[in-house]
Write a structure and sequence with these properties.
The chain is 9% helix and 50% strand. It contains one helix and twelve strands, in the order αββββββββββββ. The strands form three sheets. An eight-stranded antiparallel barrel has the order 2-3-4-7-9-10-11-12. Strands 1-8 form a two-stranded antiparallel sheet. It has a two-stranded antiparallel sheet with strand order 5-6.
Length: 238
């Protein structure tokens, strides 16, 4: 009777050890003299960031949802274990939107663009891809969370449309530059994904009018809205 081979299990075991050792080696700088290692520990556990940028709102079929505009805000992060950090963020968007009155004739139903500020707040997790170390001073990251986007208006407009407060999923990526000391810079690219709802009036016709939307268009639409921001952070608490 032929004896079972132990080479395959042994090879698999050695491969597993190699895979497990690779991230650890990368984060500890194994293979480099201490003075030449590209990895350095992130000294502080918490950060407070002010940021600004541009909120690029996705288009909607009726063209009445809040549009893109300058964005300003703040975020707080604290290390919660391993490469993960808990994040809370709030922002203001200087947005505008177009107002329609479906009851008016087609050529006069557009009532123009009006200022329509938005506020966004979310919380979630940030994952530092180099752990709690920098690589040549940089920390690439990914992030995901959930929150709200709101215009804080309780009443619908003349045409029956209301943005109100929308639940939002947030996810994105970014990079931190940590040169040492208590300050850092960062760039973030974040998608705010939320749903808008169209009123029944957008599907009805009146004399001398056509409907704003066809019957094939859903009353609920998910929008992807990309924000690109740059920020400066104060680091504290070791």
């Amino acid at each position: 009777m032929r004896r079972p081979s132990v080479r395959a299990p042994r090879a698999a075991f050695l491969l597993a050890l190699a895979l497990l050792a690779t991230p650890a080696a990368a984060q500890t700088g194994v293979g480099y003299p201490p003075s030449a290692s590209p990895f350095e520990d992130i000294e502080f556990r918490q950060e407070l960031t002010g940021f600004t940028g541009w909120f690029n709102a996705g288009k909607d079929p009726a063209g009445v949802a809040p549009q893109g505009g300058p964005m300003i805000g703040a975020r707080y992060e604290v290390r919660v274990g391993g490469p993960a950090q808990f994040m809370v963020r709030a922002a203001h968007v200087s947005s505008e939107r177009r107002v329609l009155d479906p009851a008016l004739p087609d050529e006069t139903r557009d009532l123009g663009v009006r200022s329509w500020p938005l506020w966004a707040a979310d919380l979630g997790l940030t994952l530092n891809l180099t752990g709690q170390k920098t690589f040549h001073g940089f920390v690439p990251l990914i992030q995901a969370g959930a929150g709200i986007v709101s215009d804080f208006k309780s009443q619908a407009d003349t045409g029956g449309f209301k943005f109100g407060t929308a639940f939002a999923f947030t996810y994105g990526l970014g990079i931190r530059w940590v040169p040492g000391g208590r300050f850092q810079a960062r760039v973030d690219l974040t998608d705010y994904a939320y749903q808008i709802n169209y009123p029944d009036s957008y599907y009805l016709t009146a004399p001398d009018t056509t409907s704003v939307l066809s019957g094939n268009q859903s009353t609920k639409v998910w929008k992807q809205n990309i924000a690109l921001t740059v920020g400066a952070s104060y680091l504290f608490f070791r």
